[in-house]
Amino acid sequence: MTALRPRAATATASRAADDALVRVRGLQKSFGTHRVLHGIDLDVREGEVAVLLGPSGSGKSTLLRCINHLEKPDAGFVEVADEVVGYHLSGGRLHELRPKAITRQRARIGMVFQQFNLFPHMTVLENIVEGPVASGVARRVATEEASRLLDQVGLGGRGKSYPRQMSGGQQQRVAIARALAMHPQLLLFDEPTSALDPELVGDVLAVMQDLAESGMTMIVVTHEIGFAREVADTVVFLDGGRIIESGSPGTVLSNPTHERAKAFLSAVL
């Protein structure tokens, strides 16, 4: 298992002080009569890593899915790079975009799921190449980029393997490479290590830490407190569909003020 290292000071110092890359405002979402998100507001600046913590059912994954419009908000909106995700503004009102336009937006927002969602009938290389080729990149160029990305995630030489021939941790690293192949501005991670055996977790977290230090903007749902402490710029604690605590890892993890956050962290630390 690869151990996490303290966040490089140079990476932290390079964090942009510009306006937020991601803006979430007044986000609400219900499933039937059950309100999952209650007016979420969240900013993530370019190059920052935001970690979302909270108990099961607190709305973390739903928030991620609203950010890339896999779920449609009932109210409020999400902006990524000054563009409302899933909608355009006309006549002072938001109107949902056509599917092709939404697909174009999603290409800029990579997502890595709890389950790896690789195509089992395709090789690792084919899984990574599929998205860029479908978006118009020449196959030769996409293949060269896929090989480079496999090297980046520590899987050089495994391009001809099939997912079934790889461990869960290796498959998750392929999924990260596949997301990176689309050159996203933002990467979303939905509990990327929760389906892995404990000894495989470290390698995936190390790849994520390398991405953070390279300046990738990331929003991560995880229960890996060590990752949050060492890598996150901001820790956001949700409960009952509301943000009840937000701040630096040192503040939220070591000195939470809300009783619900204290109880949760005392159980997982």
Which sheet architecture does the biggest sheet show? Answer: 6 strands, mixed
Query: What is the helix content?
Result: 25-40%
Count the DSSP helices.
Answer: 10
Whole-number radius of gyration?
18 Å
Please list the strands of the largest sheet in the order they lie side by side. Answer: 8-9-10-3-11-12
Topology as a string of helices (H) and strands (E): HEEEHEEEEHEHHHEHEHEEHH
**Low confidence ranges:** 9-17
Instruction: Quote the beta fraction.
Output: 25-35%
Give the mean pLDDT. Answer: 91
Structural class based on helices, strands and sheet pairing: alpha/beta
Distance between the termini: 19 Å
How many β strands by DSSP?
12
- Shape descriptor reads globular
Keywords:
single chain, 269 residues
Summarize the structure.
The chain is α/β, with parallel strands linked by helices and about 270 residues long.
How are the elements arranged and paired?
Blueprint: H1 9-13, E1 20-31, E2 34-45, E3 49-53, H2 60-67, E4 75-80, E5 83-84, E6 87-90, E7 93-96, H3 99-106, E8 109-112, H4 124-134, H5 139-152, H6 168-180, E9 186-190, H7 198-214, E10 217-221, H8 225-231, E11 234-239, E12 242-247, H9 249-254, H10 259-268
Parallel strand pairs: 3-10, 3-11, 8-9, 9-10
Antiparallel strand pairs: 1-2, 1-4, 4-5, 6-7, 11-12
Helix pairs in contact: 4-5, 4-6, 5-6, 6-7
Report on the architecture of this protein:
With 269 residues, the protein is of the alpha/beta class. Helices cover 37% and strands 26% of the residues. It contains ten helices and twelve strands. It has helices at 9-13, 60-67, 99-106, 124-134, 139-152, 168-180, 198-214, 225-231, 249-254, 259-268, and strands spanning 20-31, 34-45, 49-53, 75-80, 83-84, 87-90, 93-96, 109-112, 186-190, 217-221, 234-239, 242-247. The strands form three sheets. The protein has a six-stranded mixed β-sheet, sandwiched between helices. It has a four-stranded antiparallel β-sheet with strand order 2-1-4-5, with helices on one face. A two-stranded antiparallel sheet has the order 6-7. The radius of gyration is 18 Å and the shape is globular. 41% of the residues are buried. Mean pLDDT is 91; it is low at 9-17.
